[in-house]
């Protein structure tokens, strides 16, 4: 059997909501990227931009609910985040300046399903994957909230560098969980083309160069296996799944933040958090409320 970890990020460029990195670990008999991608296409599994855009989360939520139901996790967003985030909720909440700011991001109750998903529908897709010799073994995400992004930038780290660190944390957690090396595939991180000197969580002495070429880079990392960065990596099924699941995690996080504000100002609409007119209106129309509450700008907007 072969273990393949796909990693992708969601929310690198928005003005609201977290940056999310996600890993999806598959167990397959052999890794044939095109054959696996074809199975995914037949089941409607592709890059999140195609199948799980803002307002269209039913399918991916169904998959997520089915995966975590198999592991005894259900109920609400807190239960899901505790299982799905590397290290659980505490590392995400502990840097918050105070209880109010924790409440902004993590306090609003959010029962699941939140977007019309059905665990039984998701189970049917997982069963179809299994019949094709593909088993979804492991899922984890890492979030970087607005404040963590600002803190990284204050230290001279770009969003791209932070994104790469999140990828590293996920890969290391996958290796600890699996106890085995993997084949790792992920997209090119922003403008980074040479990665060996950019890793922050992995000892450089463990990293050996395989190749660095236009549109791709590959390294051998002791204890992790081979990691490849590719342009258009979403054509790989594990990366596409990571993209879908990461989009769902980001949507849950932004939904909770919206519910926090809408509970006090009900006319505020749900927004994507990206640079669009509705999001800009949400930022403008919530400004007085945020000032009254004392919400730090760095904990709200990137």
Mind explaining what this structure looks like?
The chain is of the alpha/beta class and 302 residues long. The chain has helices at residues 33-42, 48-51, 58-69, 77-84, 90-93, 99-106, 119-131, 146-154, 159-178, 237-262, 277-285, 287-293, and strands at residues 2-10, 19-28, 134-144, 182-187, 207-213, 216-221, 225-230. A seven-stranded mixed β-sheet has the order 3-2-1-4-7-6-5, with helices on both faces. A hairpin with a 3-residue loop joins strand 6 (216-221) and strand 7. Helix 6 crosses helix 10. The longest helix has 26 residues, at 237-262. It is globular, with a radius of gyration of 19 Å.
- The number of E-state strands comes to 7
Share of residues in strands: 15-25%
Q: Spell out the helices and strands N to C.
A: EEHHHHHHHEHHEEEEHHH
Shape: globular
How are the strands ordered across the major sheet?
3-2-1-4-7-6-5
Q: Can you tell me the residue ranges where pLDDT is under 50 for at least 5 consecutive residues?
A: none
Helix content: 40-55%
Write down the overall mean pLDDT: 95
Q: What's the story with the biggest beta sheet?
A: 7 strands, mixed
- Please give the count of helices: 12
What is Rg? Answer: 19 Å
- Helix/strand structural class: alpha/beta
How far apart are the first and last residues' alpha carbons, in Å? 43 Å
